[in-house]
Amino acid sequence: MKKYPTHLIKLIDVLKRLPGVGNKSAERFAFDLIDWPQSHLKEMAAVLDSLRDHLDHCQECGCLVGKEGCPFCNLDKRDPKLLCIVAYPKDVFALEDTHEYRGVYHVLGNLLSPLEGKGPEQLRLSQLRQRIADLQVKEVVIALDSTLEGDATALYLKKELENSQLSISRLAFGLPMGSSLDYVDGGTLARAFAGRARF
Amino acid sequence: MKKYPTHLIKLIDVLKRLPGVGNKSAERFAFDLIDWPQSHLKEMAAVLDSLRDHLDHCQECGCLVGKEGCPFCNLDKRDPKLLCIVAYPKDVFALEDTHEYRGVYHVLGNLLSPLEGKGPEQLRLSQLRQRIADLQVKEVVIALDSTLEGDATALYLKKELENSQLSISRLAFGLPMGSSLDYVDGGTLARAFAGRARF
Questions:
Q1: How many domains does the structure of chain A reveal?
Q2: Which secondary structure element, helix H or strand E, spans residue B80, and what is its range?
Q3: What range defines the domain where residue B163 resides?
Q4: pLDDT digit of tens for each residue in chain B (199 aa)?
Q5: Does A102 reach chain B within 8 Å, measured CB to CB?
Q6: Inter-chain contact A3–B97, Cβ cutoff 8 Å?
Q7: Would the ipTM clear 0.90, i.e. be above it?
Q8: CATH no. for residue B81?
Q9: For chain B, which terminus, N or C, has the lower number of CB atoms within 10 Å?
Q10: Tens of pLDDT along A180-193?
């Protein structure tokens, strides 16, 4: 660390807690912040300071909600028979952005990852079973990342829910929209081929 | 913008003011911040809130200083006959890190950039002249970026200071340490060739 003034070192250390921000980026942010108008600094401080008062996880679905309550658990507007399982709150907003889905959500909060010490007990599974029973869910859509952890978690969920009278599906794998065949990786192409549909 | 809760939108907007942070990065930061422990959030808020109370620009050299005063303007420990001109406070810390330089600094605060509306009046030139006279400076080292703006500013400074009895130099251009000839760009190679020294 260079010979910065004490408060600058503190600022850099705090900024380095942000994801993907190392020493260089934190320094860049810090030197920029110093030149911010005082009002912007105060605003950022206030937003961070009151974060917990304004944002929380919904007790039901686990998604992120403001003081206005959870819009995804409003059963007047959503179909409780259809439940979509996602890993993180941000996935809910990504799915909502497609305007394709009108069911309810369940946020696991994690993906299985033994290397990071994340086991089934961190997946909010008891709440999931409770909600499936309470809402009399008929269909479950597993919307998890197409990564090693996503695949493992999806398989685990399938086994866990298999004995119930649920229809279980998972998001389709294939070519992303607007892609050229020769730029798509082999794994994706193989999955797209295996999942080909009558045209 | 996705249908985020109000406070989350505010947080993302505030984070987007950081340099090089667009929508995606700000969203990533925001969702990470939500999971931070309350103590870390409060700490970051406090550091930002009190930034101006702890950090300021030195009235003399223009560098960034804490409450402990400017270590680079302490003439008991630094040679005031040698003055190094840099563009930004962060450059001072980079040069200090080399442990090669024991003179004083002058931070311009900007580089000439007509496209960005930055002219000579934004370069703290009157303070520079005043300090050169006050400190009875004998040698000036121009330590500016090797960019178009850096070159333009260096040439401008040279013209401005030419009539005084100063020895003026600029940082050397050439191969960076540890580089292979065939990976160095043509411009650098040409400057290194032109600046070759007896070996």
A1: 2
A2: strand B79-86
A3: 70-198
A4: 678 899 999 999 999 999 999 999 999 999 999 999 999 999 999 999 999 889 988 888 899 888 878 889 888 889 999 999 999 999 999 998 888 889 999 999 989 998 989 998 888 888 999 999 999 999 999 999 988 999 999 999 999 888 778 899 998 888 888 888 888 888 888 888 888 888 8
A5: no
A6: yes
A7: no
A8: 3.40.1360.10
A9: C
A10: 888 888 888 888 88
Q: Does B93 touch chain A (CB under 8 A)?
A: yes
CB contact under 8 A, A68 and B6: yes
Pairwise CB contact (< 8 Å): B6 & A48:
no
Tokens coding B16: 């987007």
Q: Nearest CA to A7 among A25, A42, A33?
A: A33
CB pairs under 8 A between A and B: 148
In a shared domain, residues A105 and A189: yes
Angle formed at CA B7 by CA B1 and CA B10, multiple of 5 degrees: 60
A111 and A48 part of one domain:
no
Q: DSSP character for A98?
A: T
> Do residue A93 and residue B19 have CB atoms under 8 angstroms apart?
no
Q: Are B61 and B73 in contact (CB under 8 A)?
A: yes
Closest CA to A91 of A137, A144, A134, A51: A144
Residues of A in contact with B25 (CB under 8 A): 20
